[in-house]
Amino acid sequence: MDMSAILPEGNSFDLWERETVYTRVLHVNGSHPLASDANDGSPDAPFKTISRAAQLATPGTCVRIHGGLYRECVRPAMGGTDPEHMICYEAFGDGDVIIRASEQVTAFSPSTGWRLQRGFGAREETGHIRVYAHRLDADMFRGYNPFCAVNILHDRLFIEYDKTDMTPYLNRRGCVFCDGRPLRQVPLYSGMAADEGTYWVEHNGQTVHFRLWGDADPAEHLIEITVREQCFAPEEPFLSYIKVKGLICEHAATGAPVPQRGAISCYRGHHWIIEDCVVNWSNALGIDVGDECWHHERRADEVIGHTVIRGCTIRDAGVCGIAGLFAKHMLIEDNLIEGTGWQRMELSWEAGGIKLHDTVETLIRRNVFRNTIRADHLWLDCNNENNRITANLFLNGIEQREAIFIECTRDGVNLIDNNIIWNVEGRFDPAKVPVEPGSSGWYKLREDDTVNGYAVYGEGTDRLYIAHNLIGKCRHSGYYAKPVGFRMGGTNRGGTSRKAKIINNIFYDCGEAAIVFPTDDNTAEGNLYVKMQGGYLRVMYPAPETCLNLPAWQEFYGFDATGQNAWFDISLDEATGQVTVAESAEGPFGLPDQLRRLHLIREPARVAFVAADRHVPDTLPGDCRGENVLPGPFLSVAGVHPLPERLPRSGR
To answer: Is residue 530 a contact partner of residue 570, using CB atoms and an 8 Å limit?
Structure first.
């Protein structure tokens, strides 16, 4: 039995995949000298475009795509009928299959008639700056001009205007690339004077002005502009049982969700398999797998989700890597999702490496989330039940409020286990952190909530189960929760953030706290606290908030009877792909009597076993932990622990 597929309620994830015996094969080879869309799709007479094959493919058809660059949006006309009769679009294996939503442009002229000076005072020296203009060719834009459309057009209910920089929302969706490297959009023409590698779009969306790095001549470089919204997406909704394998999709000019419309889109279909694909530089969204938008009418027989996303790489999605509204029974495994969020729309409702709404019986395992910018690595929004998040790496949340956000989930259990969550920087304005001179801060009744940076944030979420994780280097805390008692639309009650279970984790060097419970109606047991200082175990309500160490936590609340305190070093090296646990050269500062009461473990090998929790299945390969276990995700604490191979060893 695959123990990593056991869900919190004890049932195994229902994997519906079956082997399809394809009865028809169509070949696409745009580089073949005889390629033509008038051909029959045989190996010797292949189609020139994937789109032609997509119009002809029927259940049981495999479209085999030979290596090459395809500048088109593939629009499947049909879906399959069941797991044995899918339609497959897969790379042939003779080179990269790249579907690009951009076109190369070559007509440039020096930009004239616009001021590089921001103000009207003394003229700045701008003679060395070289800005070029390109007037868009209307024939490239068939029904969609991303240089006319701003990023956000649809539901704007989420926007808190007093907190939000609207610049990225009002930027145009169109992007410009030089030799595959994106230029940065500026809101005013004069912005190009300050920075190289920038572009500006005229108000009518018909002309683009740009400045290359080093004030280079664009005639000496490959210049591409985005012209299509998506790379692979049905034109009609609800097509299902489609497999997409080994395709590289780039430069999609998607808009900020909602609606959720990705470079690869299931467009409200179900039972898709998206495997070994790459999505690079989508303006907003990488892959969508749900109901697209909450304003759609729901059909009584509508099935949403049941999609597998496996072994994919999603790099540099502007807002969200994978999005699924009401997507249930999802399997998301072995993916690398990095660089998400460069649009900096963190206050939107869809910003994250993965963002799912109302998901049930979903398994998210063995993924790597890295370098997410002002967005969550993973966000499960409202009414999530019986989901498991296991054996993932969540690394480097850049200006990130929390790595994992479980929002307003009142019923059921969600299990977060055997993950590594590392380096959550926090997103806040340091200037707004209250200054507390002298002893003035000692007498407040509750901590100020300006500072954040949480590994797991539960907002009005009950029964959250967090076990056997390594949680380290969080700006604020490892676990933080608060109630939302008045969020009770329709027949729903408010969320209490009660009955959480924090079991057998390792918390390392978090800035403010390891655990912050809203009330004492929660459980902590068997956790190991390493290099934590001050009152790192907290209960907020009723006031005054209590900020405790482990002995007081045990005495006053009965929490963590088998918890342990330690002081040693834990480091995570992405370059070598290793976690190293070793003795510290120096101990903590403190009076001898104070340190003695903490019972600090200085040698990692001396960490004691604790009782296993029967609700947490074994996850690691060959893992059989038995009745007694060590805290954290590894079979031992001391030593060097390799990270999954999914983590690249040397940049991008």
So the answer is: yes
| Length of the chain counted residue by residue | 652
Task: Tell me the CATH number of domain 104-117+129-226, given options 2.60.40.1180, 2.130.10.10, 3.10.490.10, 2.10.270.10.
Answer: 2.60.40.1180
DSSP category for residue 557: H
Task: Report the C-alpha gap between 140 and 166 in whole angstroms.
Answer: 29
Question: Which residues have C-beta within 8 Å of that of residue 158, sequence separation ≥ 6?
Answer: 347, 348, 349
Q: By 3-state DSSP, what share of the chain in percent is helix, strand and coil, each rounded to 5?
A: 10, 35, 60
Supply the CATH classification number for the domain 24-103: 3.30.1910
Show me where the domains of the chain are located. Answer: 24-103, 104-117+129-226
Query: 519 — phi, psi (to 5°)?
Result: -140, 175
216: its two tokens: 């280079």
Torsion sign, CA atoms 159, 162, 164, 170? positive
Residue 172 has what DSSP assignment? B
* Sequence-ordered list of residues with C-beta below 8 angstroms from that of 377, at least 6 positions apart, any chain: 337, 352, 353, 354, 369, 394, 397, 400, 403, 404
**What is the secondary structure of 259-296 as a DSSP string?**
S---SEE-TT-BS-EEES-EEE--SSEEEE-S-S-TTS
525, β-bridge pairs = 503
**Interatomic CA distance for residues 124 and 632, integer angstroms:** 59
Note the pLDDT tens digit of each residue in 101-121.
999 999 999 999 999 987 776
pLDDT in tens, 35-94: 999 999 999 999 999 999 999 999 999 999 999 999 999 999 999 999 999 999 999 999
